Each structure stands twice: as structure tokens, then as C-alpha cells.
Amino acid sequence: MTMREYMLGNVAIARGLLEGGVQVIAGYPGTPSSEIIDTLACREARDYHIEWSVNEKVAMEVAVGAAWAGVRSVVTMKHVGLNVAADPFMTLAYAGTKGGLIAIVADDPSCHSSQNEQDTRRYARFALVPCFDPSTPQEAKDMLPYAFEFSEKFEVPVIFRPTTRISHGKSDIELGEIPVEKPAPHFEKLLDRWVMLPKNARSRHTHLLSIQQPIEDALAESPWNSLELKPDAKLGVIGAGIAAVYAKEALVELGIEASFLKIGTYPVPGRLILELLETVDAVLVFEELEPVVEEQVRMIAQEAGLAVSVLGKANGFVPREGELDVSAFLEALKKTFDLESEPESPGTELELAPRPPALCAGCSHRATFYSMKKVFGKDAIYPSDIGCYTLGIQSGTVETTLCMGSSISIGSGLYHAGEKRPICCSIGDSTFFHTGMNSLLNAIVNKANITVTILDNRITAMTGHQPNPGVGFTVTGEPTVQVSLAELCKAMGAGFVSVVDPYRLEEIQEAFKAAKEFEGTAVVIARQPCVISGKRAGIRRVPYIVDPEKCEGCKQCIKFGCPAIEFDEENKCAVITALCSGCGVCAQICKFEAIQEVKR
Amino acid sequence: MNQAEQKKFDLLITGVGGQGAILASDIIGKAAVVAGLPIRAAETHGMAQRGGSVVNHIRVGETYGSMIPKKGADLMLALEPMEAVRYLDFLKDGGVIIVNTQPVLPVTVTSGQVKYPEVRDILDALSEKYIVKAFNADELAFEAGSRLAMNVVMVGAVSGYLPISKETLLESVKALVPQKTIEVNLRAFEAGRQKVEES
User: Fold this and answer.
1) How far is B44 from chain A (nearest CA, A)?
2) pTM for this structure?
3) Which end is more exposed in chain B, N or C (fewer Cβ atoms within 10 Å of the end residue's Cβ)?
4) A471 Cβ partners below 8 Å, 6+ apart?
5) How many domains is chain A built from?
């Protein structure tokens, strides 16, 4: 009997890696990719090395080393992580691999948890490496052992690109076997492969180009592409990756007879595309994000001199931004057949209150931002970074967010541009280790007169509480060196470093005042564990209540913005709810001593 | 219509990050696999989860994608009243809404920027086009032994509509909730189921 389990897409991907005999796994957390490593780290029987690396570039290089030793390795990240890892990756394409190497790069159409909507398939084309684009979690799992074999066969790294709805979709998954035997590592000293001197790079570039057609031909034969030609069908539909199932569902539902090409690999299967184009008058191309397949279809049609019309993103049949679904395909079909869209049925007249994500009750970032604003003032400039604290935009202390680690370097640039206003950056502990360190070093050496606040909540919180070099344990919970942020900053030459508890308003505000006055790059480390991971680790604090007798209804605590504090309009009095985690910051804000610890 | 067709059921679970929408959908998903039905689901993870609005799609008997098309859901299970209204686009005309009447105030309301609509007005608006089963699931969970079991009350409430037997769903509840809360959660499930059966 086959085993079926209900699994998250990323858990299915983790399973696929096991079935493919993975031996080294590295990555940096990033939604929607994080659960792959979280899952593999939790397994009891582990015959592989697994790590959270400090950033994606480092993770990529760890995977490269392992693959050059002849074992199967994988590196996981979100789409923007590949920008960080692009330097090793682009040249790795030339050098190639021995053991199979898969770069799992998860795309996020509609920016559910991201700063952009870049399409990793563009990177695959840019680097001239194959890319796998699963249409379901089951296919994602099944593709991975195949991708390892493919990578070894052509000695090239491959990209595996799930999208959010694959990674965070769930499905019944049919499981396969996990191999027991794995190859022993052996690094072969192939200097013309592993040393990318110009001479070697030139010949490897030629080699890489020479295997493009064989790669395309092999992928066209793979189970991940399939062509169904319907006799007499005038319309062809090409669906790529997850968009293929949306299109298929709509076609089956409507009973439309269209020839259908499902694409799951890149370079695209040119032979199958041509076969489809030769039999239809029009072809509708449906794919998430960029018109990657569509552009290839246009080129193939032009080269073959076919007058078939290609409908897609370039001519407005399919949107190029946001996320696709069955409804988006139905819209595209209506445009194809020139049908009017149904008018949107009028919704209710109710005014809904927006419900944006917010920092948790008792989150130390809120306290840090409160004090930062108090000391630096409205006029100051607040560059920030990527993490939970980006939600601090509500506090008025997040005024730039570009990419990981950029707060400090953007702050430096603002200062060197001649800005005279005070500049106070905020960056999380994990983001600081990721790429903030280089920026701080640069700021110090080049004498940027700015304040850098490291929001040290002792974990990588936003992506699901992964460890970082500051916490003293590895991904598997094993104890390791705990790197001191304060010592690190001092070693890089920071002349002002202050470690403070953000829950103590006086203490942190004194530190901010001194940092503001300091001539040069000052570092304030606001240390307090994340309330979620702290609670899991057993930290318990006494919650607070409002004494209605003493409350004057001034709303100073309400303005603090903690979700545990509400205002009772009837009695003109603040109320603290069961969400209170006992940080005590609101009690320090209250001028009337109306907020007190609950008496046991 | 083959058997799989008959057992197709598209369910939308809406609520607020932290209310346990993912556990609720896992209970149903795992039970579907035990019942031998194909299942697809889509969930909100990551940044949007932090106290934000969440929506899970659960498609029992589905073999294609995990996302329910607009106006495709047979039933909406709303763990919070305002979050029922936010995703009405996905519910088919005349569909069923099972809604927990206990509001969770968003930070935009607690900070005084906007007002939370009257729950009565929400229910009236929902009743115009849909079949509404409304009750306070937080209170039922509290009576069953813990407010945290609200999500399981709601699974019990929808259980009669699903093409999965009650026994299979209960096994799934037992397998997924923390060991020492099994009794509370089984009572919560029954309370929710009974509430909808009575109405």
C-alpha cells in the first residue's frame, strides 16, 4: 500500500530532498521558504549536515563545497535571497558541480511577505542553468530526486522554484522511498573546473553554452512537461508551474476543448511548443510573474514563420503583477473570446476596519521605537530594515526599507549627502549578522555620524524563530559559540556601544541621548527576547491592569499602540486585556500611576 | 456524477492570526486523507500572520489547485465576525456562513483610528444573501474548558456539512491537539456540532 500524508508544500519539498538522498543542506530563512530547513532540522534520524547560514551567499557556497566533494547538496532561500547569492551562483554555472546541487528559491507573487515580485526563472535564464517549476506540492516532492539526478548528469547546478501557493499550500502527498546508501565524499582537484581564472572561465562558458540544447532536449522528455492535442481545437493553452493547474481547472469546469501544454522546466521545451503552435490559431500563455514562457513562445512562432496569435502578459490578457488564480484565467478567457466581464456584484455597505499585521503585545521593538522617537524627535530620519520591526512603520520610526542590511548604509549615504538632521537606524540581530555587519564597518571607517540601533530579540522572529549567530545554538538545537554583538561592534571600531533593556524606558532613553550626542557611528543594542520565543522558553511576567479610579482617560497608553490596551469609551478609561504579556512599558508611560501589576 | 464529484466541498476559513485557523484546517485536511479523499489547502503564513487578517482555503475532493475561485466556496467558517465580511467574494450565492460572533479588535480600532462595526449589523448584512449560523464560539469553548478551543468548536460546527464522517474528524482532533487538552477539545467539537444541528 502506498503511504499518503497530509503535508505543507515545504514539508513535501523537505521529503523530496530526503528521497533524493541529500547530504548537505544550508539556507537562510525567508518566507515562503523557511519551513524546508525547519522540517529537516527536526527529524530525529539525520544522516546529513544541516545549517542556517548567516546569509544566502554563504549558504550557497557551503552547498557548492559539498557538491564539489561529490555529495548531493541543497541551498534554500526566498527569491530576493538569490540576489545576495548571485555572485557565487553566476560563476558556479560555469564551474558546474560533481554532486547534484539544487538551489531552492521560493518566489512570492503578490508580495505576501516580500519587498518585490522578482521572478527567479529570469535568473535561471541569466545564469544559463535549468529550472524546475512545480505545479503542485506532490509534483514538487517528486521533482527533487529527478533534479538531483539531472544536476549530476549535466554537472550543472539547477534551480527549483516553488511559489508561495506551492510552499504554503497543503495537499495529500504520496510518499516514496528514502535511500539508505549515500556516496562517500571525495574532492577531486580539478583546477580547470574549480579555479575560475579567465582562461578557465572562457572555456567553461563555451562548455555551458554547448550543453544548453542537450539540456533542453532532455527536459522536454521529462515527466514535468506534457502536451495534450485536442483534434480540431483552435485554441491552445500553455500553463507553467502552478498556473497550469489554475488553467486546467477552469477549462475542465467550463468544458472548453483546448489543446493544453503544461510546462514545468526551463529552458522551455521548444519542440513541444512548436508542435502546439502548428495546430492552433491562438495560444493563451498563463504563468505567474514575468512573461518568461510567453517571450519564448513568441520567438519560436516568429522563427517558424507561424501566424499564430500569442495572448498573454505583453498584450494585457493576463496581469503581469500580483498573483494568478482560477478567476484570473477565466478573465483571460473572456478577453480571448471577447466576452463582457460580469459587473462586480455590489458588496455590503459595511465599513470594515482594516486589520494590518501588527507587533505583538509586549513586543520589545515597540518599546524601543517609542523611546527612539522620544529622544530623536519627529525631525530625525529613521532608516530601517527587514524583519518584524518593519511593522514599526506605525510608530513613525521606519522611513526606509530597501533590502536586508541596508538601513545602516542608507543612513550613511543620507549623512554623507549632507543631511543635518539626526539619523537613527534600526536593524534586527539576524539582519545585522546577515549583511548589516559590512554596512556598520563601512559606516565606522568612513565616519558616518549616525546612530545604529540593533533590535536584539535573540532570534530570527519574522520567519518563524530560527537561530542566528547571537543565540548560542544551531538549527538542531546543539550548543555553539554565542557571538556577542557588543564585542563584534567594538572590534569593528565602534567608539560608542551601549547594551540596554528596552523595557526600561529611562535606561534606553539615556543611551539614545548619549548616542545622539556622540560624534561618529554610535551603536545602541536594545536587548530583550521576542515575546513569542520568550514565552516558549518559559519566561513568565505578571500582567498589568488599569485602576479605573486613577485613570484620567488621557490616552497616552493607547497612543503607545499595544494591542493589549483598549479604550472604554463609556467610562472614559483605558483597559488592559488578556493579551498583556507583562512588559510593564505602559505602566512607565502612565503619568497617573494608574497601571499596576495584577496582585496575586 | 462520479463519487469524487459528489464529495467535492470547498471551504473557506477566515479569522485573525493567532486564532488557530491553521489547526482547524489541518484537522479537516488530515481527516480527508484518512477518508481517502484528495485534498488541497492554501494558508496564510509569515508577515501577514502577526495579528493580521487570515484566510485558509480548504478543498475536499479537489485534484487541481489549492485556491478556491471567486464565488466558489460552498461554506465559510468565520472565526471572527468582521473577517466573514472581508472575504465574501469567495462564497457562492446562497452559500452557508458559520460565524463566531466574538469580535477581535484590530489595532486600528484599539488605537482609536476607526470604529468596529456593530456585530448585529454584520450579521444582518450577511443574512441578506447567505444562510447564516451565528453564535459565540469563544463562550462555548470556555464552557468546554478553554477559550483556546474556539477553533475546534468551529470545526465541530462545520462537521455536519463535510463529506467526512464525524468519527474520522474526531480521530483527527485527537491526533492534532496537545495530549492533555484532548478531553476539552472533544467537548468543544461536540458543543459546536450541537449548536449548528439545533439551529
Assistant:
1) 7
2) 0.96
3) N
4) A458, A459, A482
5) 4
